[in-house]
Amino acid sequence: MKKLITAMLLFAFIFITPSIFLDEVHIEAAGKTMYVNAKDDIILREKPSQNAKKLGTIKNYSAITVLSSSKGWSYVETNKTKGYVYTSALSSKKPTPTISGGLIPKAGMKLTYSPSFLSTNKEEFIVSKDTYCTYLINISSNGSDLCYSEKQSKLSMGVSGTDWGFFNLTYPMKQGQYIKDTYFDYDSMKEKYNKVLVESTSKQVKVKAGTFDNVVILKYTTGERYYFVKGIGIIKATDKKGKTVTELSSVKNIKLTTTDAVKLVQKYTGFTNDSDMIFEYDHKNDEQHYIIHVFRFVGEHTATYGWYGVDPYTGEIYDALTDNRI
């Protein structure tokens, strides 16, 4: 009889007790790879509640490991951090995002290309922005500045201060569909276009600067390709034979140095090759922007051409005397 009672108690402990604590104990299952497929990045929370502590965010379209799912929430792991997300924000199929903008670099970065856009050599650019353009200001000797623009559902790029353009592409960009690269034909005095295939919006591509996810690859009918990354712009370009003609070799979010600021002002004023003009860092103003003095010697005296401010975080240049922002 005692043996029977003992057996019954053991049965109850093994099979009934876990159900009592089921809501308090999290049982992890084998991981399953799924993908974030939402309107934007999603929040990772400590508990399955919209008011729970926020552990971080997970980028849209990225892969995560799902450990379990229940009542509209999934317990997941990403970058060695575990937490909860809405199950409705996940997909078992790798999504192919539609791109409607953002394929230009963010101000304040330093981008290095080797080979570069108009040179087979290495060139460094500081990204600066104004109302009209996002500029790649070339701080290598005698290099051309470039300009990105995103306006009226179009992405364009060309040489700053000229009518030389590389492309004028239409948004949105959806994988497997064609977009237009428009241009003005002076012979017919009409706007025309070339068809461009959106080959991918989700591939991983490795270049000298690193490995990038969700790369937008555009293929022309002649075989040339452009590779774009959101917030950076072009990371690679290949010719019709597949040879790399432009490649990003370094990308940095940095605080500009005084030497960088001097180079920016040299480019802006157009006196890069004027050996008589002197560009000199003088001080920081109240905004902690670099103040650059531009002058030349006339006999025993100095003749000031101007004073310029440079924001070390965005590369913005302005007249320091009038505070006229460029």
Automatic annotation (TrEMBL):
InterPro entries noted in UniProt: SH3-like_bac-type
Gene3D superfamilies for the chain: SH3 Domains
Pfam family, one: SH3_3
Residues annotated as domain SH3b: 31-94
Signal peptide: none
Name of the protein in its database record: SH3 domain-containing protein
Source species of the chain: Ureibacillus endophyticus
Lineage: Bacteria, Bacillati, Bacillota, Bacilli, Bacillales
